[in-house]
Amino acid sequence: MDNISEYIEALIFASEQGIRMEEILYCLQAAFDHDFDITEVETAVELIRKKYSSDHLAIELVRVNNGYQFLTKKKYHQVISLLQLQRSKKKLSQAALETLAIIAYKQPVTKLDVEQIRGVNCDYSIQKLLEKELIAITGKSDTVGKPILYGTSNLFMDYFGINSIDELPQLKEVTQSDNTIGEASE
């Protein structure tokens, strides 16, 4: 088979995580009903690795956790992280923003505390904020059941361009003297 490396390249590209040599062999043998020699496959993988080692390409073939994966070269990590940060900014729902604000101002805080303030279940919002690494688990409360405590993360600080929680805008009084209805009684 002349173009085995193209099939291997496609398998590695299509895999969401590192693909092991055994998986590559299984897929090739199942697709072509042919027993491939492992050295033949290893040689093809090495050719692919050399192909992507060119300075003119932004990705490379890397062996990770006993598998192969295409990854962006290190020199592009800064620009890629900016893209990921920008995309994560766009995807915060209103519920997630409300949950994040409560955690930021009340930290360390339990999920129950957040739910009492919001009045709704916050499981999904907290999970999404943890996935986006905007909040982190800071410990466990000393109260009954030892619930998890949440606080903001370093990424939260970067995301909002602050150095400490003290730099968050102060909550202002909602009521003002000129916003009263009726006459004031003495």
From TrEMBL:
Record has Transmembrane as a keyword: no
A Pfam family hit: SMC_ScpB
PANTHER family for this protein: SEGREGATION AND CONDENSATION PROTEIN B (PTHR34298)
Transmembrane feature ranges: none
Highest taxon of source: Bacteria
InterPro entries: ScpB_csome_segregation, WH-like_DNA-bd_sf, WH_DNA-bd_sf
Keywords, ordered alphabetically: Cell cycle, Cell division, Chromosome partition, Cytoplasm
Encoding gene, per UniProt annotation: scpB
Protein name per UniProt: SMC-Scp complex subunit ScpB
GO annotation, biological process: cell division; chromosome separation
